[in-house]
């Protein structure tokens, strides 16, 4: 009896109408899916943010390490070369009175050359023998240095070659108020009078500029750690500095690269990400508060919770509105059909579900079959129409370019650069407006140039300083005809296969000029170029028919070449010139025409 009452209660209060059935069945499901989606999205976003944050720091360390390694290796090679110079080594066995003036001049010229060439990193260079008996140096300070041999030869030992690196310390030789790092070689032939030293002092300002070039949060910083000390690139609060146990642990780590965390004296979690310089085995480490590197994670979590709550409230409101909107007509129809069917239809088959559905099932059984048949036909027609629209859309735009551009715009919005985002959206709109060209295949070179300027603006916004471009276009050719979207595939090819493959900043040059009755348009880059055999194969593919399968030539360049030949004739089209290490130039030639060109079509 109790089960019957419960069943009647549920039926009376939850399934008594079509609207209440929708709310009872679908609303909990919608809320559940919103909660699951929010939870999964939060986890994925958090994981992605953490991964990106650590990757950015690792990239910063990697780039800084490579730059420092290059500079320090060059300086070290200069020290090795200088200290192994026979003229310097020969001084060890000579008395000061035996050293010829020519030796002073030759060694001094060598020191001057090294100091001037590496002045950006070298604070001073010095060669000293006979305990200051023989002394040559170059520095920006006006001082007469004196080397404390006891300090150097007592404190530094154990290296067979005599080469040593020294972390940040006072400049004892030239200016005690100045901080420097040092690299030097001790020359000792086991005789007190035969000792010498070749010393390079390195500018602390150089390391400060390099390590502070990439900001790592407000309280994060890069540091250089060696067995004899630590150099911190910027001044931070005491609680963010490495404590002695952590510093000692870093100095004794065997792994060349890695990451670990520790708790500072203030109870905050700190992240240490480190790598090792190849030139001197010092550790370069990023020290960042964990809350700072992952500050966006809490924002994502709070935002997700707020969004889920808003979506649930919206789902409740919308479900009630939609339920009422859907059920009211059914109630009216059910009432009308009930009045008619009670006289004409036999309700022998009982149907579960809301009362309205029972009436509709009896009255519209055959009609539903016919509707289903019609709906299948409509769905098939709609699917064919959708596929056709998709094919047209795919032929007009590059989805990958659109996706990357929109993602870049999102990034600008996320950073609050709304003005830049607005400019980028305007450029994107103009890009597609000109690309569509009201269905025209032939446009003016002026319109084409406007189109690629929007394209280059978007790419420049995306890639920043990775490349620059220069446009050299004769004004007299701007009114003449060109097939739309002729230059954009060439520029896209120069970006992705030219300057992006080159280390350092790339450059793209777009030129256009008139030669007789022929217009020449060129897109050049200073990338790595193309090997001769590969270039030969590409040129063969350029001359091959459109239907033949291409190994190197992309569909964009194929399309440009074929469309030019179709519209203007086989004597026009696309050519490629390249030289390894010097870049690539892709050229197209078209006739000088205006207005309609049906004679070529």
From TrEMBL:
The chain crosses the membrane at residues 21-40, 303-323. Residues 487-594 form the Histidine kinase domain. InterPro entries: Bact_2-comp_sensor_kinase, HATPase_C_sf, HATPase_dom, His_kinase_dom, Sig_transdc_His_kin-like_C, Sig_transdc_His_kin_internal. This is histidine kinase. It comes from the Bacteria. Its EC number is 2.7.13.3. The lineage of its organism: Bacteria, Bacillati, Bacillota, Bacilli, Bacillales. GO terms for molecular function: protein histidine kinase activity. Residues 364-391 form a coiled coil. Keywords: ATP-binding, Coiled coil, Kinase, Membrane, Nucleotide-binding, Transferase, Transmembrane, Transmembrane helix, Two-component regulatory system. It comes from Neobacillus driksii.
């Amino acid at each position: 009896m109790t089960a019957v009452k419960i069943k009647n209660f549920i039926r009376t209060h939850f399934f008594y109408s079509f609207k209440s059935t929708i709310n009872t069945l679908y609303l909990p499901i919608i809320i559940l899916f919103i909660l699951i989606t929010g939870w999964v999205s939060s986890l994925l976003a958090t994981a992605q943010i953490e991964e990106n944050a650590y990757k950015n720091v690792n990239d910063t360390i990697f780039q800084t390490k490579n730059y420092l390694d290059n500079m320090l290796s060059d300086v070290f090679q200069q020290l090795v070369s200088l200290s192994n110079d026979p003229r310097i080594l020969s001084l060890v066995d000579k008395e000061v009175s035996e050293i010829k003036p020519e030796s002073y001049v030759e060694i001094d010229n060598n020191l001057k050359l090294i100091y001037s060439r590496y002045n950006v990193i070298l604070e001073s260079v010095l060669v000293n023998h006979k305990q200051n008996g023989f002394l040559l140096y170059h520095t920006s300070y006006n001082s007469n240095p004196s080397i404390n041999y006891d300090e150097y030869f007592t404190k530094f030992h154990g290296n067979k070659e005599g080469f040593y690196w020294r972390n940040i310390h006072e400049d004892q030789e030239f200016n005690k108020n100045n901080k420097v790092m040092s690299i030097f070689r001790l020359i000792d032939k086991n005789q007190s009078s035969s000792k010498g030293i070749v010393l390079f002092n390195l500018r602390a300002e150089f390391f400060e500029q390099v390590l502070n070039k990439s900001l790592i949060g407000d309280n994060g910083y890069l540091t250089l750690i060696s067995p004899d000390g630590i150099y911190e690139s910027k001044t931070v609060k005491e609680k963010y500095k490495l404590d002695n146990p952590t510093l000692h642990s870093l100095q004794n780590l065997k792994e060349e690269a890695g990451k670990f965390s520790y708790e500072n004296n203030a109870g905050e979690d700190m992240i240490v990400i480190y790598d090792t310089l190849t030139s001197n085995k010092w550790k370069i480490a990023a020290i960042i508060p964990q809350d700072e590197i992952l500050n966006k994670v809490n924002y994502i979590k709070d935002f997700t919770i707020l969004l889920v709550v808003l979506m649930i409230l919206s789902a409740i409101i919308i479900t009630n509105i939609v339920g009422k909107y859907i059920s009211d007509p059914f109630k009216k129809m059910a009432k009308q059909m009930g009045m008619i069917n009670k006289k004409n239809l036999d309700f022998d088959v009982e149907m579960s579900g809301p009362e309205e559905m029972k009436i509709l099932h009896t009255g519209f059984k055959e009609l539903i079959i016919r509707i289903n048949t019609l709906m299948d036909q409509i769905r098939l027609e709609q699917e064919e129409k959708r596929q056709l629209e998709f094919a047209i859309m795919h032929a007009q735009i590059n989805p990958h370019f659109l996706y990357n551009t929109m993602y870049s715009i999102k990034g600008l919005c996320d950073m609050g650069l709304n003005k830049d985002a607005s400019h980028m959206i305007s450029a994107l709109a103009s890009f597609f407006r000109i690309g569509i060209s009201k269905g025209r295949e032939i446009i003016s070179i002026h319109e084409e140039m406007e189109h690629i300027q929007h394209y280059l603006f978007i790419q420049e916004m995306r890639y920043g300083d990775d490349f620059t471009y220069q446009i050299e276009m004769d004004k007299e050719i701007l009114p003449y005809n060109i097939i739309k979207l002729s230059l954009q595939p060439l520029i896209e090819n120069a970006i992705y296969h030219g300057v992006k493959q080159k280390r350092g900043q790339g450059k793209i040059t777009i030129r256009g000029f008139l030669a007789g009755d022929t217009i020449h348009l060129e897109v050049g880059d200073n990338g790595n170029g193309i090997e001769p055999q590969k270039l030969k194969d590409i040129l063969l593919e350029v001359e091959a028919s459109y239907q033949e399968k291409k190994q190197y030539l992309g569909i964009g360049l194929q399309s440009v070449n074929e469309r030019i030949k179709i519209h203007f004739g086989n004597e026009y089209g696309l050519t490629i010139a390249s030289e390894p290490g010097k870049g690539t130039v892709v050229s197209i030639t078209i006739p000088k025409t205006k207005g309609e060109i049906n004679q070529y079509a």
